[in-house]
Amino acid sequence: MTPAARTRTAVELLDAIILAAREGGASADVLIARELAARRYAGSKDRRAIRALVYDAIRRCGEVPDSGRAAMLAVAAHDAELAGTFDGSTYGPSPIGAEEPVAAQGVAPAWLIDALAASGIDGDQAAALLGRASLDIRINPARVPVGSVQGMFPGAQPIPGLPFALRLPAETPVEASEPYRAGAVEVQDAGSQAVTLAAAAQPGMRIVDLCAGGGGKTLALAAAMDGRGTILATDTDRARLSRLAPRAQRAGVSIVETRLLNPGQEAEALADWADRADVVLIDAPCSGTGTWRRNPEARWRLTPARLARLVETQARLLDVAAGLVRPGGALVHIVCSLLDAEGAGQVDAFLARNPAFRAEPLALPLGAPHEAGMRLTPLNDATDGFFVARLVRA
Ligand SMILES: C[S@@+](CC[C@H](N)C(=O)[O-])C[C@H]1O[C@@H](n2cnc3c(N)ncnc32)[C@H](O)[C@@H]1O
């Protein structure tokens, strides 16, 4: 494809992504993969270049742009070579008009900038939310001697404080590697690994992973439990939860039981675990403001109403979880968001409703104290953004 044809394809993809963001359609990743698969004339170099153009444009525009072309023009405004591809050639975009609208640049929609600033995330901290994410893996000590893995991935670097984590060069094909197939490694952000340590999982414990999804944190808990104890992994999403069993099998984990929940009926479905868990981990559904490095278009999808619904669900899940924790046990609240409404504020409200719980100070290898818990940010920790708190029942 010519550079001009790549630009035009990127503009078309952006139109589809903008529409999906407005109407709650598929994610940018899914749309890009689907569209490029349909364009058989696009080779692997073309695909990489188009993908990079699309993500550059998404990152650059804080508010939802009016059109894919306006978004791409925002990139072209700083890139003469790209501007030159608007050349009116057969497969290229038409030339840039003198009065053409160009999408405004920014970190996020104005209401979200305000909400982040009110949570102490502004300036460089806010800009870093749109940086490049790293590729991290977690080593599974049940499958491989920990020290042997670094040599299996060229360029792998240890991450201080996280003995099971390695940071790999971007584009390392982890999922095609032999250690991955053998269950010796999982792809998992170092921040995600660090916040899971707040559970302080130990062999023999009984743990509920209430929002287990595909089991990223479940498997990290299981590794810390060294194959002894029980983890009940629950979720309301059948497709996500169904990915857990094969992953657990690959990792050689046999202490995990899964249970599909109905939204709104979680407490009833978990009545047999009332007052019995040593730890309940809530990796809550959230706005994902800490993961914009990976899903920058997520900030175009979030609305105040959707955020309010998420905050409501998180509060309900915290109350459900409280009923499962044994006296002396702990509840761990995690969100991959930097908005206090979902993190520190959510925990404060829970503690006010549940005087039997108190926040326990955390000392994690990454992050800094924030209100009743700790916070990790892309700028300070080079990880996704997280808030985590550990709440202990009297
Ligand atoms: C942040 S993701 C979990 C990621 C997962 N723990 C991991 O480490 O890979 C949040 C999960 O909460 C689930 N969820 C949403 N509402 C829920 C509910 N009412 N009860 C339990 N899980 C819920 C979602 O389906 C999603 O899988």
UniProtKB/TrEMBL annotation:
Active-site annotation: C336
Binding site for S-adenosyl-L-methionine: D235, D283
Record's signal peptide: none
Pfam families: Methyltr_RsmB-F
Alphabetical GO biological process terms: RNA methylation
Keywords assigned: Methyltransferase, RNA-binding, S-adenosyl-L-methionine, Transferase
SAM-dependent MTase RsmB/NOP-type domain mapped to chain residues: 120-394
Gene Ontology MF terms in the entry: RNA binding; RNA methyltransferase activity
Membrane-spanning parts: none
InterPro entries named in the record: MeTrfase_RsmB-F_NOP2_cat, MeTrfase_RsmB-F_NOP2_dom, RCMT, SAM-dependent_MTases_sf
Family: Belongs to the class I-like SAM-binding methyltransferase superfamily. RsmB/NOP family.
The protein's name: RsmB/NOP family class I SAM-dependent RNA methyltransferase
Organism field: Sphingomonas suaedae
